[in-house]
Specification:
The structure is a homodimer of 441-residue chains. Chain A is of the alpha+beta class. Chain A contains 14 helices and 18 strands. Chain A has helices at 3-14, 18-24, 32-45, 59-74, 117-133, 159-164, 170-173, 184-190, 221-225, 263-277, 315-335, 355-369, 382-386, 413-432; strands spanning 47-48, 51-52, 79-81, 87-91, 98-104, 140-146, 208-216, 230-235, 237-246, 250-251, 283-286, 290-293, 299-300, 303-312, 339-348, 351-352, 374-377, 392-397. In chain A, helix 1 (3-14) packs parallel to helix 12, helix 2 (18-24) crosses helix 14 and helix 3 packs across helix 14 (413-432). The longest helix of chain A has 21 residues, at 315-335. Chains A and B meet through strand 10, helix 10, strand 11, strand 12 and strand 13 of A and strand 10, helix 10, strand 11, strand 12 and strand 13 of B.
């Protein structure tokens, strides 16, 4: 965005305090308690002893979506499914342009109760409050429940939102298989989705003025900072590789250190070196998977394979980190008489959310949390996909202990209440008062 | 052994040069070339594209044993199987006491051609030469083909030799299962072995004056030293543990280094520290197996488990190594905010071979190799089990690249020839000339 445009908007918004924004709106009074009630009901509906059962393209997920459909029917709002399986529920506005809020109802297996569901049911309460107000908002309001955000069954995350963003290539995902060997294309067909037509969902993005999402942080920063809600500046870029260090196997008993070419020692040196390279708050470096081959206690491994997931908000810094780690591995491998190589598994560039929406989000969060904190998302989100084609923004609620993707995932009710209330103010401001938000890229 | 007894024997043997020793023997002329021929034939008989097929208690192993039985029949030597499945082939001597030579015909899956087979067919050639000499040797000579030395199918190595040594407890191994779920006891029954009666094989140890074994080193030391045959001083003690470092899982993208409790970093630090502790020629330290749980590229592991195999010739030093490594793990875990713990998998004390036999073996090897090298075995061997109840000794032939347990296992023919010839001289000296070898413990 041009600096001039940003300044023009900023000063315009600064002259319009949040209370005044709400005065211009109809008597829309969304209530965070109703969001917590819906979330608790969904939790009971999809609970197993080991966590929530809402894996995409399964019965548990269908049950969660049926619950959402019931709630929408109760408030007289109709919903429809787009070609990629995303559910859209819309309330008409005075103008034709549309503000969307949402997230996803699918979860990882044995997942938590808030991941995705928080954003969907916060959005539902917004629709409910708008519908209850008895008069149309300035802009149309849509709630989107994106399909298969987690990608936990077929390994392809952000399926529905990438279709809306025009970034889904069916030929690259059709043949992905789940653990039981079922093809992604067939699983979708079983839920009435023709994968080849999924990219048509991108037509809906053209009508969007903004996309806003409330999500749990899935990390420990807000908790550590003591902040109940924070604006998200963007998403880190990701560089993910599988590294292989190859040495020479041998009997554990017969080879002294000096005559070994031990890839385990080289891998350990590389991992220690990686932590030294990436010890700051700006970057993320994770070795989540490691295997020694042949993997028997009485043999020096022939080779060690491990994944390295690097993330940074800056593409330049991410590339630097990648380069410096490659040097670390090379040196460690050479020192142990081993060879090394890497295969790219996944790569995505950093994403910045719309700076005008971010500015507004930051002010709203500061008003509710008592302190303005801006964070960068390490995980990907539907909003990150949408940001490629629509001005998008996110708010984060804290995660206790930074835990997510497990039944231990939780957020204090007081924090949830504050974060939901902040999201309501933010969304209503964008829905009613926020002018001049061109798609800027 | 008392120093005085050793000195008495040493000076006695020193006064009796090897040639004189052989002059006292009958015209026994074992030929290393016949050993290489037999080994080549066994290799062809049990070859697969990926290595030798001689896994204990399988068809391939039975085929190898049938080949040995054929060769024994050709020279008119009968063999019998003891209660543990070991094959004994005996030639009578003038005296009642017995010198045994041998090793094992079983191999790891896709194994090499020399491991075990070298010692068995060197022993066969000795029997053949003694039988061909037309007159009995001074002592009885037995060739033993031990059953299931590798333990590769059920995870219990040295099965047959531990029975002879009186160290096999059937109740502790009966229920071991192979990868297909077959019980050890049932597999043995399929080969006509009643596991409960296996300990009776220990009666045979009482008749033994000495047990001698030629084996490949399975390590790189002889090659590095340029020596074709070396005497083995004993076997290292082994301390094998599974370590677990437990941290806190979290999303790879959302947790900065300072807020992580990352067990992978702690494990890497521990492994780097282990190499620093055990970088000398005296000790062995190997991490052959490692696993991160849950083991997904986008999550900080909840815990990392890895095996640590420590070996040393000295029990005191082994215990020190174990203690110092435990400190290294504890410090690394604490530094990363993790907990650590270990479970013992396996432990065995160091073994020293009979010092009088070692002295003789050292002199014979020096005569054949041009240089006297004494090594310690890291791997266990049948001779190490026998050493608990019988004066035992081993000679090592070099292994190219230190490789074993694979089809790449090999030894230069010139080295094999020298090592086999040395073993013949050594065994004939013990068979014919070596007096006063009491069981000394």
């Amino acid at each position: 965005v041009a600096a001039a445009a940003l300044t023009a908007w900023s000063s315009r918004f600064a002259a319009m305090p949040i209370d005044e924004t709400r005065d211009r709106a109809p008597a829309v009074r969304p209530d965070p308690r109703r969001v917590l009630d819906d979330l608790a009901e969904l939790r009971n509906l999809t609970a197993t002893p080991r966590g929530a059962d809402r894996l995409a393209w399964t019965e548990g997920w269908a049950r969660a979506r049926a619950f959402l459909a019931e709630r929408l029917a109760e408030i007289g709002v109709e919903s429809e499914r787009d070609e990629a399986g995303n559910v859209w529920a819309t309330v008409d506005g005075v103008d034709r342009d549309m503000v969307a809020v949402g997230s996803h109802l699918d979860a990882v297996p044995e997942g938590g109760w808030l991941d995705g569901a928080l954003g969907v049911f916060a959005g539902l309460e917004l629709l409910r409050a708008v519908a209850a107000s008895g008069r149309p908002p300035r802009r149309r309001l849509a709630l989107i429940d994106f399909a298969d955000e987690e990608g936990a069954r077929f390994g392809r995350s952000l399926l529905g939102s990438s279709a809306v963003a025009g970034r889904l290539d069916p030929s690259r995902v059709a043949d992905l298989r789940d653990a039981a060997g079922v093809r992604l294309e067939d699983a979708l067909a079983g839920h009435g989705i023709d994968l080849d037509r999924a990219p048509s969902a991108s037509a809906r993005a053209r009508g969007l003025t903004a996309y806003l999402e409330l999500h749990i942080e899935q990390g420990p920063i807000l908790e550590a900072e003591g902040v109940s809600v924070a604006a998200v500046r963007g998403a880190m870029g990701i560089s993910r590789h599988r590294w292989t260090i190859t040495g020479r196997t041998g009997h554990a008993g017969s080879t002294p250190a000096a005559l070994r070419r031990d890839p385990m020692v080289a891998a350990a040196q590389a991992i220690v070196g990686l932590r030294a390279l990436a010890s700051g708050d700006e970057e993320r470096a994770t070795v989540g998977q490691i295997e020694a081959v042949p993997g028997i206690p009485t043999a020096i491994p022939e080779r060690v394979e491990f994944t390295v997931d690097l993330r940074h908000e800056s593409a330049v810094e991410l590339a630097r980190l990648e380069r410096e780690f490659a040097d670390v591995v090379r040196r460690a491998a050479e020192q142990q008489g081993c060879a090394s190589g890497a295969e790219e598994i996944f790569a995505v560039s950093p994403t910045r959310f719309d700076p005008r929406l971010l500015e507004l989000a930051g002010e709203v969060c500061a008003a509710h949390a008592g302190r303005r904190l801006e964070v960068v998302s390490g995980p990907g989100h539907d909003a990150v996909e949408l940001a490629h084609v629509v001005p998008a923004a996110m708010l984060f609620a804290p995660s206790i202990g930074g835990v997510s993707h497990s039944r231990e995932e939780d957020t204090a009710a007081a924090d949830l209440t504050i974060a939901i209330a902040a999201f309501f103010d933010f969304a209503l401001a964008v829905l009613e008062a926020f002018d001049n938000l061109p798609i800027d890229r």
